[in-house]
Amino acid sequence: MNTVVDKFIKYVQYDTESDTETGLTPSTPGQMVLAQELVRELEEMGLSNVSLDENGYVMAVLPSNIDKEVPAVGFVSHMDTSPDFTGKHVKPQFVKNYDGDDIVLNKEQNIIMKVADFPDLKMYTGQTLITTDGTTLLGADDKAGIAEIMTAVEYLINHPEIKHGPVHIGFTPDEEIGQGADFFNVKKFGADFAYTLDGGELGELQYENFNAAYAEVSFKGRNVHPGMAKDKMINSINILQEFTAQLPKDEVPEKTENYEGFYHLLGMEGSVENSKLKYIIRDFDMTAYKARKKKFETICKELQLKYGKDNVTLEMKDQYFNMREKVEPVKYIVDIAEQAMKDVGVEPMVIPIRGGTDGSRLSYMGLPCPNIFAGGHNFHGRFEYVPVDSMQKAVDVILRVVELISKR
After folding, report:
1. Do 44 and 106 fall within a single domain?
2. Nearest Cα to 152, choosing from 371, 392, 407?
3. Region 87-108: what's the mean pLDDT?
């Protein structure tokens, strides 16, 4: 039986970076390649109802081994990695018996992960860490989750003395671009409830996440030779700056935490003739979330009055909503996960997700789905790492969750 580390190192070799521009599901071919490998492994383990559909969704069932009816539990992770940083040619490195000091990721390029920048490193002194080589992300978000689920299922198969009800497995594409649940067939999946294992440090347990929207604001100008531009030129970049100046400067990701919402400028492009802003809007509270969207609309209307309706346009869409509304009626599933952590020696941290997971959308699709830690840190960049002990603890939590459900 391969360990969780063996599986993780294998899965991160697959280039599964998602892409917002293709319009496909999965958005990139590498995700389907990994999906096919996972199907092969699940079939080799002997799971039932193993399937891979045309959109890259992998599903399987480990049948119950007890003679009473208990709820069917699901475990879900996503196969893609973030398009924010390359996940191609990942070269994981092991830092054994970590000494608590800065870690040289790449000596040739002088890439160093500094404790001053990432103080959480100190928590793992004496442990083994898996890091990048400084040139790619690692992919612990969320291949750690996949490896943990696969390891737990394999363990259950090899240890039939552990009693369990039906265990349903799901791996999704394109979570990182907000499309992970687009074609997830909840009825086919068949679980009564589920848990995502998605990112997050040891002990994280979450059933609240942001309400989320994506917005693009476009500005049109009029170009005239600058030497003859008086009262004729309209510089779209200047209109863009007027828009950004009306947003609160401290309500941004780098200045907010806990339950504080934000506006996040993802990117901009511009010339005199045409400019564009790309934002995500986040807030836990629905009233505050709606107010944030309303602010975008109000600023745009003011600029339209000043520059013309066709010169300022807003496209805005909801991405997902806070899962708390759907999970609270079945709060016992959070309690089960919390108890499982305590039983295996992990201190639970019930905190909000400052982001979103497949679980938030799946909860609104009828599959309540809190999130359990997968162990990683510093996602979407060269400083991503995961402690080996945290991955093994995530496996232990899955196994204990399954046991606790079998006793209901």
Report:
1. yes
2. 392
3. 98
Nearest residue to 406 via CA among 89, 124, 64, 59: 64
What's the token pair of residue 210?
């942001």
306 and 293 within one domain: yes
Can you spell out the DSSP letters for 78-89? E--B-TTS--SS
pLDDT tens digits for 142-190? 999 999 999 999 999 999 999 999 999 999 999 999 899 999 999 999 9
Tell me: the pLDDT tens digits for 273-298?
A: 999 999 999 999 999 999 999 999 99
Q: How far apart are alpha carbons 199 and 344 in whole angstroms?
A: 19
Cα separation of 73 and 165, whole Å? 8
Find the domain containing 230 and state its range.
211-320
d(CA 231, CA 207): 55
CA pair distance 14, 87, nearest whole angstrom: 8
Tell me which of 175, 283, 338, 358 is the catalytic residue.
175
Q: Give 294's contacts (C-beta < 8 A, 6+ positions apart).
A: none
Other Cβ atoms less than 10 A from the Cβ of 54: the count is: 9
CATH number, residue 125: 3.40.630.10
How many domains, the chain?
Answer: 2
Helix (H, G, I), strand (E, B) or coil at 212: strand
What DSSP character marks residue 376? -
Q: Rounded to an integer, what distance in angstroms lies between the CA atom of residue 208 and that of residue 251?
A: 20
In a shared domain, residues 137 and 221: no
What is the number of other CB atoms lying within 10 angstroms of the CB of residue 99? 10
Same domain, 204 and 223: no
> Over the range 268-290, which residues count as b (16 or more CB within 10 Å of their CB) and which as e?
eebebeebebebbbbbbeeeebe
Note whether 393 and 347 are same-domain residues: yes
Residues 367 and 363: their CA atoms lie apart, in Å, by: 5
Residue of 80, 142, 198, 208 with catalytic role: 80
**Is-catalytic flag, 175?**
yes
Residues 311 and 347 in one domain: no
Q: What is the pTM of this model?
A: 0.89
Identify the H or E element spanning 282: strand 274-283
Q: How far is CA 219 from CA 205, 236, 293, in A?
A: 42, 5, 18
